[in-house]
Recover the amino acids of this structure.
């Protein structure tokens, strides 16, 4: 299955977990932006590893999983230094989307989604700043979580935009998906479910009509599980306005993060990635302030909408995965539309889980649930009941 | 000598010229932006050749040289699609500067300069839009010519900025250098030399003091050859103002040239190259108009300064080649300073020849002569008398 283009080439990074533990016998893959002691962190770029020493310590999340008995089977490819949402990487090759082979896998945790969807391991770690776990989970038909921002220790992971960076994971089945959470969140998956489901009508209207239709049975199942449901507007200011705020903040922080590397190593990047970094330099302080205020408004909106025991659902992506090999301009607008839905997690810091189970034209598309900050395990409980 | 990093790797492009002809027995190399029938044109980029069919026709200049009896020994590396002045290419490796091995070779005709300076052939073809023959000739200690714009047919050559693009060549010795011109310009090298030499005091003052000192004996030799000499100001508006105009026009045209490729192929580029292309998109029409008017002023200035029989001299570069491996920010200002001198050729379309023979800190630096449009052969005559 090496022709997935999903594993980092060369000697395979394999590390056995401690023999006993709550995750014993589970096998997982690690996105190549996350440190595993003794293995180079390649970052999906030919010029990242030479700029960074081989780590001598596992990332916190890796250490925690190994200590719980899970074993690493390999490191997985990613969009260049996490800067992408589609998974197309001309340096490493674009990983296969096993659920829709003529389509992109989604990114930036592209290789992790690919190997899990292909059944090569039980779960895989990814990072999610602006959608990098949720989008490939939606496109490849997997459970995927972006935890509450700041809840899981990010040490030993390549940063992009610290005010939005999170580490999450993907799995094929809901029970395994939830089991990983009991270890990382260090709490059992609750048995009680939320009592109220909000349906974000603006987000459903924003998705392609076929997606809304395909997701309707999943929304019904959620409604049955939760009981009470109500329609609401998620973003009164507009999803595109929230997206602009997230883009402004994320791009500015990403440029700040990568500027020393860009300057010292003048790295090779695909044009679209380099262009976004170059254009971020012209974002002004006034724009950043405006964006930061809109972020406060988005957070306030979610606090208002989501008291304890309430969750909200929306389409994870407005359409299934785009076809592979399209031009930069063909993909420009789809990319923006994806971000209009995916921005909510990065902007508000709320936990978000992708639930698989729907397809459009034979390609997966996921339903997301968002809960109040800190409700990660409750979202996993919903996924478990749903799966 | 493959460790020059100067030849395109893989099977060597070798083509024998017609057995008899004015250039019989001369061997030359071809910058990999210039078509040789049956060989891919790689353009110094991993993503250029796949976007362009293997040419079935020689570029005009190649056909002309082969017909005159010269033989091709190989194709040479270049900055990515000609977008560079220093010769550093992370995809192909940076060619060796045989005259100063710890320094860059200059670009974008980097490989051509490298193989000629190493003595592997008699001359080599390059292209020069903003300095791409003259700068490596200066840095590697070679004769090099940027012909009058429009004088030599550019067909079969990868364009960058059509209003400045030219094809030229480099050689170690002045006689060979001039012989190539008799074929390409289809006229004998005149025996009579220009009668007046102008010394561009603003350009000499702009160069490092050590360069001006090192070039003084060359200026004296030129003065002896030509007879009458006079000091003058080349750019009353300022060399940096001329540079801005050339940068505005050249960048805008380059983006227009490469936009379809960038869009369709999203190619891999080093960050500095991609950034310049991305930022060119924000150049406005009013800036282009202003730059075009300044170009008219620069052309008017050269028409005024250079009646027939008059040539002008200036340092080709303000310093010898920078050290290899510097950061983007360390090289930013040196790059701009080089362009302040090199812009004159691209902006005015006048022919310019680099004369070698001086060194600073052991590294070559060249003296340029510029003549009126169409005086190419007269400049070659000066080089021949000088050499």
């Amino acid at each position: 299955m090496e022709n997935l283009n999903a594993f980092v080439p060369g000697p395979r990074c394999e590390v056995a977990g401690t023999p006993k533990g709550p995750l014993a016998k589970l096998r997982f893959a690690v996105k190549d932006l996350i440190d595993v002691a003794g293995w180079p962190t390649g970052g999906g770029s030919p010029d990242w590893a030479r700029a960074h020493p081989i780590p001598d310590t596992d990332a916190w999340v890796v250490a925690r999983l190994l200590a719980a008995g899970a074993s690493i089977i390999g490191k997985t490819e990613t969009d260049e230094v996490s800067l992408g949402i589609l998974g197309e990487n001309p340096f490493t090759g674009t990983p296969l989307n096993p659920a829709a082979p003529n389509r992109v896998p989604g990114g930036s945790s592209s290789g992790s989604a690919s190997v899990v969807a292909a059944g090569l391991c039980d779960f895989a770690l990814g990072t999610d700043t602006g959608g990098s776990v949720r989008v490939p989970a939606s496109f490849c038909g997997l459970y995927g979580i972006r935890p509450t921002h700041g809840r899981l220790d990010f040490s030993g992971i390549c940063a992009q935009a610290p005010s939005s960076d999170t580490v999450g994971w993907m799995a094929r089945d809901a029970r395994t998906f939830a089991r990983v959470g009991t270890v990382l969140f260090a709490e059992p998956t609750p048995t009680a479910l939320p009592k109220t489901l909000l349906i974000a009508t603006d987000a459903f209207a924003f998705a392609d009509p076929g997606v809304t239709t395909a997701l309707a049975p999943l929304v019904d199942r959620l409604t049955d599980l939760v009981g009470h449901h109500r329609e609401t507007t998620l973003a009164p200011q507009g999803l595109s306005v929230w997206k602009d705020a997230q883009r402004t903040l994320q791009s500015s922080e990403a440029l700040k993060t990568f500027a020393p590397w860009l300057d010292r190593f003048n790295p090779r990047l695909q044009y679209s990635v380099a262009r976004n970094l170059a254009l971020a330099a012209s974002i002004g302080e006034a724009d950043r302030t405006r964006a930061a205020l809109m972020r406060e408004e988005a957070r306030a909106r979610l606090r208002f909408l989501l008291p304890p025991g309430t969750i909200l659902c929306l389409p994870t992506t407005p359409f299934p995965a785009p076809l592979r090999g399209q031009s930069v301009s063909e993909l420009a607008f789809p990319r923006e539309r994806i971000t209009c839905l995916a921005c909510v997690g990065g902007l508000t810091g709320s936990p978000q889980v992708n639930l698989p189970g729907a397809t459009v034209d034979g390609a997966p598309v996921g339903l997301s649930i968002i809960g109040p900050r800190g409700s990660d395990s409750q979202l996993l409980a919903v996924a478990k009941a749903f799966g």
Observations:
- The CA atoms of residues 15 and 72 of chain A lie 5 Å apart.
